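Please fill in the sequence for the structure shown.

STRUCTURE ENCODING:
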């Protein structure tokens, strides 16, 4: 087909996500391969771990093969037993529920707040029973949960507090880094996250008493870590565990990414801010809600979402953007209503009506460090060309 000019639809489609390649990435990976130390706990694992600790201020950190595995480690560290209960939001990623259900615990799903879409801290206490062992939260879009209130609740009921901080690397609440409020926090370095090595994660430990056992759990239930440090003369099976230690080649990629954190974040914030500013008028005119960032929260520009008035308009906007060559997408399906959610979990009193509504109405726009200014402008124009139908 011959056309006189390149229209928006003929331009290259803008993907929802594209992993950033940082400056020293290839050189570090090459070094890791040549040094002949490609299994876990090598020099790059040390380097990436130190960078992560410096960035978050966490007491200790252990790299893992994924955030899912970091959550599974947290479940093992809690020593959960069949029938124990773990309180968590319904509006979150499946790995959170899976990790505790795998240990025989029952996920108890609580609704989210309408503003931040984080777990509603005012509903948590009513979900606590004599079987509750932990409260697990996710800082949605890297915007902090009400950690002060949740911390007091956990302390008052002698429960563990765990953060799924997959979205929150670099975010903070009243100047304190996300990932340092809970006894433990799980990070993700999946290719869709701000800092990535394809598949990877970390368990942050803010309770010094947890490190020794966490190391054993990560190393197939053995004290191999102590053996390599010369602290014991042989390593043996000590505890339950699995293989959660990532290869040093992946840690090399991660170290390079973490060294580029400021650069990555600078670009991501520029995109986030452009969306937020440029879509304000359109959102107001169309009854669309933009993200809410409460006072004291510094978010890390992990994702940009819009809440359309209803499911029909959300679907229509995704279709409209797709025709304009912009890949936008919905997000979590409520866990309490998922097939496995009803089988393995239960919903807290009052249900999760806000979660169900948010899940229907939410759309995420492309957001990554290498999104060009031209592409950002194209996304904004495409969104603005959509009129909400009522
Ligand atoms: C991405 C993500 C995970 C899973 O991370 P993996 O590293 O892929 O296991 C878990 N929780 C949340 C909130 C996430 O966004």
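FILLED IN BY: designer on duty
SEQUENCE:
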């Amino acid at each position: 087909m011959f056309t006189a000019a390149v229209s928006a639809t003929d331009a290259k489609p803008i993907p929802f996500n594209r992993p950033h390649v940082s400056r020293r990435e290839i050189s570090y990976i090459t070094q890791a391969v040549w040094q002949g130390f490609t299994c876990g706990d090598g020099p790059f694992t040390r380097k990436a771990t130190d960078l992560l600790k410096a960035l978050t201020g966490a007491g200790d950190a252990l790299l893992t093969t994924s955030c899912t595995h970091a959550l599974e480690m947290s479940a093992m560290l809690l020593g959960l037993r069949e029938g124990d209960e773990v309180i968590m939001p319904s509006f979150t990623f499946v790995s959170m529920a899976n990790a505790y259900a795998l240990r025989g615990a029952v996920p108890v799903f609580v609704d989210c707040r309408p503003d931040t879409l984080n777990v509603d801290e005012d509903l948590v206490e009513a979900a606590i029973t004599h079987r509750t062992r932990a409260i697990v939260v996710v800082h949605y879009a890297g915007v902090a949960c009400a950690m002060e209130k949740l911390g007091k609740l956990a302390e008052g009921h002698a429960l563990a507090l765990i953060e799924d901080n997959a979205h929150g690397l670099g975010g903070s609440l009243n100047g304190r880094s996300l990932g340092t409020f809970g006894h433990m926090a799980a990070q993700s370095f999946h290719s869709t996250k701000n800092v990535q090595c394809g598949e990877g994660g970390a368990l942050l430990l803010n309770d010094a008493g947890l490190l020794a056992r966490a190391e054993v759990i990560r190393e197939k239930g053995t004290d191999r870590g102590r053996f390599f440090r010369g602290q014991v003369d042989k390593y043996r099976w000590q505890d339950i565990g699995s293989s959660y230690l990532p290869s040093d080649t992946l840690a090399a990629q991660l170290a390079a990414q973490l060294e580029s954190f400021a650069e990555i974040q600078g670009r991501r914030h520029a995109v986030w801010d452009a969306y937020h500013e440029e879509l304000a008028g359109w959102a107001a005119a169309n009854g669309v809600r933009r993200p809410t960032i409460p006072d004291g929260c510094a978010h890390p520009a992990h994702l940009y979402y819009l809440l359309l008035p209803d499911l029909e308009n959300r679907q229509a906007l995704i279709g409209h953007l797709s025709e304009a060559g912009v890949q936008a997408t919905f997000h979590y399906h409520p866990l309490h209503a998922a097939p496995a959610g009803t089988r393995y979990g239960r919903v807290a009193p009052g249900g999760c009506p806000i979660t169900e509504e948010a899940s229907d109405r939410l759309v995420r726009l492309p957001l990554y460090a290498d999104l060009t200014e031209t592409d950002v402008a194209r996304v904004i124009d495409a969104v603005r060309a959509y009129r909400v139908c009522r």
